Structures are given as C-alpha cells and as structure tokens.
Amino acid sequence: MPCEQNAKYSEWKIFFEKIMPLLNNEIFLVGHSLGAIFLTKYLSENKVNKKVIGTFLIATPYDDKTNPEPLGDFKLKYDFTKLVEQGGRAHFYQSTDDKVVPYEDFLKYKEKVPEAKYIEFTDRGHFNQEEFPELVEDIKKIF
What we know:
The chain has helices at residues 9-19, 34-45, 81-86, 103-112, 133-142, and strands at residues 26-32, 51-58, 89-95, 117-121. By secondary structure, it is α/β, with parallel strands linked by helices. Helix 4 (103-112) links the parallel strand 3 and strand 4 (117-121). The protein is built from five helices and four strands; from the N terminus they run αβαβαβαβα.
C-alpha cells in the first residue's frame, strides 16, 4: 500500500478502490497490522461489490488506548455490522508476545465481533515471518 511510513487511510482507500475492480468476483482479503485495521475499517464503513469469502486479519490494532503509536485516520467507528455481513468468514490472529499490537486489542475484537474465528499464538511476535502455515490452512478450509 502507498506511503507505508506515513500511512493515511484516505490514500490507502483510493488505492484499494482502484484495484478492487481488477479482482475476481469472489475474493479473500488478508491484512497484517495497519493493513488489517485498514480492512476492518473499510469493510465496516463501505459497501463492497465483491463476494468476500474470508477476511484474515493478523495483529490488528483496535484503538489508541493500548497502541504505542496513534492510528490517525485509521481509527475505527466500532460498528462492525457491515464487516460481519460482507466480510465472509472473519479470522483474527494474534500472538500474546506481540510488542507492536497489544494482546488487549485482540480481546476487544473478540468481544465486539464474536462471530469471527480467533486464533491465538504465544510465540509469533508481530508475525514478521516468511511462512504462516496456519493462515494457509485456514484459507484452504473455506476455499
């Protein structure tokens, strides 16, 4: 996504909406960290003209209360109705030893979006790894 070091939701939204028409009609969405909160916000606030089969959100920030860096215009409105309705089967992944996104954020999503599947790890940090076999398996299960 554009300007990763100085990310702005409004710029990411423009970019995302330019590539959406190029995708198949049935899609999977995967986001990590700021990319995950982007997808959460986008799916919660906008109409998606594709059938989202599954949304996979890894180390997803929730709010400024627990995060060391402000979320700026990535802040959520906390109404996840559209996310549940159009996001397909939502999966949240979090590691208890993540130093970037606090585990408390994962628990907040668990409370607010109980329909989702929650996968917890104790040794993945911020998921900066080359392979993520559990994610691949979860995608294959619903594909």
